[in-house]
Amino acid sequence: MTAPKPTALPIFDGHNDMLLSLYLPDRGKGRGFFERGEEGHLDLPRMREGGFGGGFFAVFVPNELPKRARRKKSDENEGQVKTEQGYDFPLAPAIDPAYAQRVTLAVAAGLFRLERDAAGQVKVVRTADELERCLGDGTIAMVFHIEGAEAIDPDLNMLEVLYQAGLRSAGIVWSRPNVFAEGVPFRFPSTPDTGPGLTDAGRELVRACNQLGVMVDLSHLNERGFWDVAGLSGAPLVATHSCVHAICPLTRNLTDKQLDAIGESDGVVGINFAVSFLRPDGDNDADTPLELLARHVDYVADRIGIDHVALGSDFDGARVPAELGDAAGLPKLLAVLRARGHNDASLRKITHENWMRVLRRTWKSGG
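The structure corresponding to this sequence follows.
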């Protein structure tokens, strides 16, 4: 089967959790990838409808407890602690590394099976040239990403193995501690300065990722961890799915100083579509206009430049604006951005060119 013609503005997305939804039966509710569905946000037909050209496909390991396995992020109220001004989701507990390795391999295998069964319609990309070709010819480009490095041992042997399998992007933590760092909790309102930075093992992980050409994702690190990576890494700084703290003072969002550091490194911020990351009140209300999402895009563009902002939807991992709905609704977001003054050149940067530039600088091999 040949791939359909690509859209004029293929959208390369900084983060989605589709693989976990397909892996967990109670989360995926029997949904598939190749048929158009109504559950979740992503499948191949809806990607085609919305101009979704590819993205970082996260391998995330849920906590072992069954109830926690049904909930990945703060898009439900389970575990929420009400505070005087907002709410707090305390850090999830650390997970067993053996369990993390087992689930990581199983979810990653699902990614490779999708590629095998797709008859050329999708490709797990390992180089910038492969990514560019996919965006040009309409093949859905899938980047193997891990969200939280619990499957990687302190000696980094598993990092080498995963890299050879195709790993090209890694988040050091999710919002829980591991041997490398401590994640930032979901807390509103709060600064992201919530705990200690990288451990010695975490510093070695960053150096090894730089050496291999694995992109380091800063999105779930607390502020001290962020600055530790900024002081160590020779690659552009990247937050794949975060928003602006000055608009929504959530721990998971980036302060102005953090944004400045990303811009100075020639990095990029993928704006998260999660409504609780977008809204000034931190509420998890799907009745959130796309204008507010566009406001986060424009804030980053105005502060550190149009070359440093992109999209990082968090599809299948968060509640997104009802106005958008799912991947098929992405043209609605582009229409809002265009109405706010973004021309074709600006939209090309936001949708894919900025990601392309950063990955060319980060990944070691081009072809």
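Residues 97-117 form the longest helix (21 residues).
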